[in-house]
Amino acid sequence: MRKPVIAGNWKMNTSIEEGKALIEGLTTGTASNTCDLIICPPYTHIALSQSLLQNSSIQLGAQNMHESNSGAYTGEIAAEMLKNLDCTYVILGHSERRSIYKETHDLINAKIKQALAHNINPIFCVGEHLSDRESNQTLNVITTQLKEGLKGISESDLTNTELIVAYEPVWAIGTGKVATPEQAQEVHAHIRKVLAEIFSTELADKTRIQYGGSVKPDNAKTLLSQADIDGALVGGACLKADSFLEIASAAA
Ligand code: PGA
Predict the structure, then answer these.
(1) For residue 154, what pLDDT is reported?
(2) Of the residues 6, 9, 38, 238, which should be mutated to test ligand 1's pocket, given the most ligand atoms within 8 Å of the CB?
(3) What are phi and psi for residue 194, nearest 5 degrees?
(4) pLDDT, tens digit, for every residue of 173-228?
(5) Active-site annotation holder among 94, 103, 162, 190
């Protein structure tokens, strides 16, 4: 019922040449239409990606975005600039933005609202630290992140846009330590329950929830076979066309 969605977060990786080769590998290798594929390259690669993806079903996303329309914000990128380049998704609330750049719930909330106002689909990341998990606080942390991040947003704000939620346990990102399918499923089911409380059961049922954190071709299938896991947000393993496409085929 929910079409799987696999997104690649390139982070701060690849030269232009490497990025071009990666996209060419993806476009020549993409065969099936049974899942949605999104790539989120660095800003500097977005215009090139737009032209390389012109005849492809692969969609384009950004890794971050500013919460204002325009102005004196040195180094920042606005929603309209992304829209101009057919960049229709944006990753917001990633744990690296939260921890390294100190993005708060309020800032993430403002960015999500800005994305929705410009018909850009947010990929809203939530996830607990290892200390939260060890002190049995995982579900509370996730509830807070969801409620704060989505504060003031109503179901009608999601009429023309899709909210994707990505569950990414911080301890699993870039570490090779993947959550077990059971651990991930428990949190995904919880996320769906909280979304039903915030919006409605109907919206919660159709919201796609990705798992992220050390997703690789060899663990993708068991994760994606869980009832509430509707896709993956992939970091390291998206930098090689073969492994990203293998993960996509595990979703099919
Ligand atoms: P990873 O990163 O797949 O390298 O763990 C995932 C992410 O940060 O989105």
Answers:
(1) 97
(2) 9
(3) -65, -40
(4) 999 999 999 999 999 999 999 999 999 999 999 999 999 999 999 999 999 999 99
(5) 94
Pocket of ligand 1, beta carbon within 6 A: 9, 168, 173-174, 212-215, 233-237
What domain count does the chain have? Answer: 1
Which CATH number characterizes residue 126's domain?
A: 3.20.20.70
Q: Give the least confident one: 25-29, 66-70, 239-243.
A: 25-29
Tokens standing for residue 207 = 């919201």
Which of 106, 87, 103, 83 lies closest to 95, judged by CA? 103
Which ligand 1 atom sits closest to the C-alpha of 172? 5
Residue 168 bears catalytic tag: yes
Beta strand residue intervals within the chain, DSSP E? 5-9, 36-40, 59-62, 87-92, 121-126, 164-167, 209-212, 231-234
Q: Report whether pLDDT(33) > 90.
A: no
* 0.85 surpassed by pTM: yes
Pick from 168, 177, 247 the residue to mutate for probing ligand 1's pocket: most ligand atoms within 8 Å of its CB. Answer: 168
Task: Pick the residue whose CA is nearest to atom 7 on ligand 1.
Answer: 235
Ligand 1 centroid to residue 19 C-alpha, Å: 18
Residue nearest atom 3 of ligand 1, based on CA coordinates = 235
Range of the domain at 27: 5-250
Q: Quickly list H helices, 104-227.
A: 105-117, 130-134, 138-149, 181-198, 201-206, 217-224
Write down the residue that tokens 């690649």 correspond to.
Answer: 8
33-37, 207-211, 236-240: the lowest-pLDDT one:
33-37
